[in-house]
Amino acid sequence: MDMTTSNPIHDDRVPTHNGMGHSPPAQVEPIPSEGEMYGDFWDPLFVIHNSNSTRKHRDPAGTPASPGHMARHTQAQAPTEVQVLIQRVRQLEQRVFSQQEPENSVSAPHSQQRHPQARRTVCQANLLGKSHWLVGFAQFDTIVHTLNNRLQDDDVEFRALFFKCQRLSRAIQQQYSLRASSLQALDGSLPSQEACNVCVNAYCRSFESVLRILHVPTFRQEYNDMWTGSQPTSKLFMLKLQLVIAIGARVVNQSDTLGTPDMASRCVAWIQEAQQWLHAPGESLQASVDGIQLYCLVLLTQIVCAIDASLVYVSTGALLQKAQQLGLHRDPSHFPAIPVFQAEIRRRLWCTVCELVLQSSMDSGSPPLISCDEFDCRPPANLNDTNLGTTSEPEPSNILTQTSFSILLMRCLPIRAQVAKVLNSVQLDPSYSEVLRLGEELTAACHHNTQIIKSMSPDHEQPTLFQLELLNLLTYRFLLCLHQPFAMKARKNLAYYFSRRVCLETAIQILAGHPTTPSGQNVNDYLNVKRYSSGLFRDPYLLASVTVGHEILCVTEGDWFSCQPVSPLTNNLSPTPKRSQQGPRTVLEEYVGLSECRLKDGAQIDIKTYVLLSCIIAQIKAAETGSPQDDAVLSAAVDSLEKCHTILVDRYKSLAQSRESPQPLQVYSGSNVPCRLGKGPNDILDINETGEGEGWSDFDVSQAEWSLQVEYPDLDWNLLNTWSACVPGSDSEGS
């Protein structure tokens, strides 16, 4: 009897043999284990199906459905064959359950691939891999459930406050878009020369010292010629300059940009202008080194200025293809005709392309678009820009040059690419031993970078704090994401305790830095980037803060096996010893303060992020005092929303007043009720209707309709006006 095509549903987890020399029937799908169904975060089970798919069944006791029930999905069979099939199903179930990775085991076969079609978390039509920060928030699923219940009940005041904040956020974003449209008519307009000088210098000492895009002496020569008028200025150079100014304005304090209050709107206009040039037909310079440089600047500006940062992953695919089309992935030694100067420029630019592609993969939780098997371009030479193309020999590694940090990033690129592939692949399901191996290699590579930095000669220039902070972020975020899924299981299974400890110490390493100041003065360049930027400069910090918050909660609730914040690993992570002296509570509270600053000044308004972190702090304090945690979470949510509303109202009024002739603007709430921005009965500042919003599940884009049907216990995914969790909830004991 042919049984291979009787059911379209196929489960890759079913062993090919049942121990008796027989192959299992293809139409029978084994019942998932309790861990798979409700709490296995390394392999969250989402049953994605169409209208013809069958549901997985359990009886009220939570045990697998009877084999007889499953047999009803098979074709008609003779009674004897049905009995034989039932017996074989029982044997298969027992074998599947016994061969699944046990909770008390630290190793499992590397080839386990369970439910590859549902390996990744479904969130508002986006698929988020395990490198996404929302995976870590599953540790606080009780906060999501509490806010879900509050938004679903009759508390109209709470709902109205939440949706007013959402509408204000959209209104502010639209104000920036309107200004950008008006600024596009001012072709070639720049801030004052003094302001441009500040921004260009800030860019060169910060991002250009780590992610090499430009040849600084050549760029500065063209920059000076532009102001003096001694040489005609090309359109391509103006586009580059505008983006450099946009990035530099975010590096320095806004008050230092010297009379450019509309810089955020200018950034939007400049990005749009550069994108139009890159996609315009007939531009021969698009497929050139200059075109790749402009493309890299566009993507970096989107991240730093928080403008469509969620779309960077898509754009990096086009950037990678353009770079490969230009041959940047091949080492220039294969082309003897290329001058030494151009060869080094190409190597530097390829390093930056690889870094942008890899980091965007981690931000979006998507598979990396690049593999180290697909290129042979070597790291650039350790030379300063002034010595590029001359007969000078490269400096030794203990001499800091303008290319040193780019070399450090390139040398640890292979292991980071492996980690990104393991985290976000839809097929790979690594065992814990594989995770430990990758973590060991990644830690060794990071420590090697640290040793090189420590060995740099004190007689020469020393690394800046910005360079050290950015290098740590670009490397250690991979270690945190790699161990996070197993660290979330460690509270119940001590076999994963090492991952839990690594995550805590790495999270502290990522979060620690100079404290914020309420006045916003005397902050370093890197802290300004954290304050204004998104994507790369937001997501790893959110995951780290959630990790630290959960560990603090575990300690407060009396977890005997909770991790201690100080260990030899922490002391080795950074060449700045002060970092290891800051405890988990300190770095968490500092980042909550930074999130409030992002509400006031950031281009991306993270309402839900701030509410989330405030609720985590409230839950920790409630656990310390023994008071009801749900009440504390609700109170903190209301207080944080009120603070958000006050901040956004002030911010919107400031934007409206700065416009020469404010015009009412139409903004639509989730319920498509138009709200006029300005005076009138439907003023966005006064409206009290309760509409629907996208809820918790989507941070950067507008409400999206579901394109897939998703089954998940205890959450109603059809309610788009809820604070929806994007990842499956963990066991309540872990919250």
TrEMBL record:
Keywords: DNA-binding, Metal-binding, Nucleus, Transcription, Transcription regulation, Zinc. InterPro entries: Fungal_TF_Env_Response, XnlR_reg_dom. GO terms for biological process: DNA-templated transcription. Residues 96-111 have a biased composition (Polar residues). GO terms for cellular component: nucleus. Signal peptide: none annotated. It holds the Pfam family Fungal_trans. Residues 312-386 form the Xylanolytic transcriptional activator regulatory domain. Coiled coil: none annotated. GO terms for molecular function: DNA-binding transcription activator activity, RNA polymerase II-specific; RNA polymerase II cis-regulatory region sequence-specific DNA binding; zinc ion binding. Residues 1-35, 52-76, 96-118 are annotated as: Disordered. This is Xylanolytic transcriptional activator regulatory domain-containing protein. It comes from Aspergillus arachidicola.
